Amino acid sequence: MKTPKDGPRVKRPTARGDKATRHAALTAEIATIILHEGLGDMSVRALAARLGTSDRMLLYYFTTREQMILAVLHEISNRLSRLLAEHSTGPRLSPGQFLTRVLSLAHEADVAPFMQVWTDVIARGARGVQPYDSIARDVVRTWMAWIDSRLTTPPTGAQPGRAAAILSIVEGMSLLEVASPGSTAGVSTYLAGLFDPTAPPIQA
């Protein structure tokens, strides 16, 4: 006679709430790893090993590698949004003043990892690497909207190219710093003078 222990093992179902909670926890853990170590190749197997689980189990929560990347970068984006909100108070700034402030901010220990990740995302997106290509477009739009929200209105009316110009400078300098740390020293002061030749500098 078969006893219960001789029968097939019945897998205990996972409650949806439990799965969602674990998904969120894994997303947060991977985001922290990426912010400390960079994007790398986002290997499911390597990340699973770091988290003390299997690649099969990781895919159980994220379904695909692409979905995992999207979830993790969304988490990183949310963290950065909260961080930027802390630096979005006070009066709006002129382009030169803003550039000085944001370049200084980009080098701060709590912000620099985000800048490095987004620079990598944009570079991969520019090469058409999926799913970074779609993410890169959203990142650029988000950054430009935030920049516009922090700039004073020019007396001559709207200048659509201002935010793109500033973002291009910030991203370019971030890339140079990754390639050659310290190579952009003094650049922010020089560029601020070009943007606002008659405006007094703002303390970063």
Rg, Cα atoms, Å: 22 Å
Number of DSSP strand runs: 0
Please give the largest β-sheet. none
Distance between termini?
Answer: 80 Å
* Total domain modules: 2
Question: Which percent range fits the helix content?
Answer: 55-70%
Return residue spans where pLDDT drops below 50 for at least 5 consecutive residues: 1-15
* Content-based structural category: mainly alpha
Kindly estimate the percentage of residues that lie in beta strands according to DSSP: under 5%
Shape: elongated
Number of helical runs?
A: 9
Order of helices and strands: HHHHHHHHH
Mean pLDDT: 84
Structural notes for this entry:
It is a single chain. With 204 residues, the protein is an all-alpha fold. The protein folds into two domains: 15-69, Orthogonal Bundle (Arc Repressor Mutant, subunit A), CATH 1.10.10; 87-199, no CATH class. Helix content is 65%, strand content 0%. Helix 5 (95-106) packs parallel to helix 8 (161-179). Mean pLDDT is 84; it is low at 1-15.
Secondary-structure blueprint of this entry?
Blueprint: H1 16-37, H2 44-51, H3 55-62, H4 65-85, H5 95-106, H6 112-126, H7 132-150, H8 161-179, H9 187-195
Helix pairs in contact: 1-4, 2-3, 5-8, 5-9, 6-7, 7-8
In brief, what are we looking at here?
The protein is mainly α. It is built from nine helices and no strands. The protein has two domains: 15-69, Arc Repressor Mutant, subunit A; 87-199, no CATH class.
